[in-house]
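During the no-cost extension, the postdoctoral fellow (Dr. R.K.) reprocessed legacy sequence entries with the updated structure-token encoder. One reprocessed record is reproduced below for audit purposes.
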Amino acid sequence: VARNFELAHAGAVALRGRVIAMHVTDFGIRVKLKLGPRGFEVASEQSEVALTIAATSEGFIRLARGQDDPDRLFFERKLLMQGDTELGLVLKNTLDAIGPLFVAARH
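Re-encoded structure tokens follow.
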């Protein structure tokens, strides 16, 4: 747990203030996010994008639930990155350290 906290903290330091554009390809939605003091927040439209991540809505949901590995989706060309790919790796490692962002409801 301590190691995960250290990884998450180091990632947060590297991500702070950098703008990441998320493109949900099947809905045509693009949103710019940046890490602020209380988590991710919407960045201004004029903000310079450091990294763009594109995937379908299903791909993003599966990633958020921890059901898919981003590396596998990337190599299958179901997850596309453009820009600062090193920042993408920092983001991936930070999210891996945090764990799934939400869990599907059980029926």
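DSSP finds four helices and five strands in the chain. Residues 1-5 have pLDDT under 50 and may be disordered. The remaining legacy entries will be reprocessed before the final report is submitted.
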